[in-house]
Amino acid sequence: MAGSSLTPTPHSIDISLTGRCNLKCTYCFYANEMTALTDLPTDKWLACFEELGRLNTMEVTLSGGEAFTRRDLFELIDGVIANRMRYSLLSNGTLITDQVLARFDEGKRRQRLNSIQISIDGSRAEIHDASRPKSFSRAVRGLRLLKEAGFPVTVRVTITKHNLHDLENIAALLLEDIGLPSFSTNDAIPMGSGCQNEAEVALDSHEQYEAMQIVGRLLERYPGRLNAQAGPQAKIQMYAEMEHARRTGEKTTRWGMGRLTACGCTFSKLAILHDGTIVPCNMLTERLGNITTDSVHEIWHTHPVLTAMRQRRFIPMQDVLGCADCEWAPYCNGSCPALPYTLYGDFNRANPHDCYRRFLQEVGHGVSA
After folding, report:
1. Which of 40, 83, 84 is nearest to 278 (CA)?
2. How far apart are CA 343 and CA 357, in angstroms?
3. How many other C-beta atoms are found inside a 10 Å radius of the C-beta of residue 6?
4. Cα separation of 283 and 279, whole Å?
């Protein structure tokens, strides 16, 4: 973001504890790394948590693969807690049972838990399972167990071609039937398995617009109960702000317009893959080092890739390759750099998946139409 400032040490770390997963989701962006890397053993992760504790990192998000496939998961959670950090978990929900939840009552595991996020991609099995094979009943069972036991539980819905027309039913399941206070959305992007299965899962521009309309109706029906940092819901606001700025000259202060300000993550967080590789984020897997051989503190402050990513915010959109002649350049921020890095090997490019000019050319009108 335009006003981002570097924290002295990473405030939070996204940690992929394992490449193992009991599902093969059609849009998994992490699938390529799963097959190429080897899981770190327990002692290496515990040593990593000790370093993060010395750095005063505040919180970690533990995921996979599927984090609950690690037999030592609770030993690792205890290692996080012992080093004065809070934690969250990302899960597909299928391995959560009463016996698993009972283990959170030991020590400070439950007190230090921020949230457990479950992925739900349909209101019924045939829709959810199209993206997350043979998992709907187990995922919903895990979600209900968490809710009934009073855990801080959240849900992420990834919008795809499979569930676009099921979004209203999904909202009813999550908010009315199960009784969650809210849920979040994003959409499948062409990375990892999603890149291989793009035609099958990723929304085209017309479907993006339809998703925006559906989400808009849901926001009217359930005010404040849907949230998003990416995908159709986030684009509703972003595109509307771009239209408003172009029409009136009043630029939003929510994010920096006209420069590559998208993604402020490198000012406050990092990610670690399951073999210990340190990367800017788990979607932008430029190798910065490895926790078994390199200092996180030194990488945070001196690595040239992170320095370059933090300097993106000074690059005018009109200087970005492919954007010089775009009438929307003064109102754009380039969006997430992970996809252009995946496609072109360059994070100083605009994200084509979120390009408003492309959206207008393909749909024929703006979000206000």
Report:
1. 40
2. 19
3. 13
4. 9
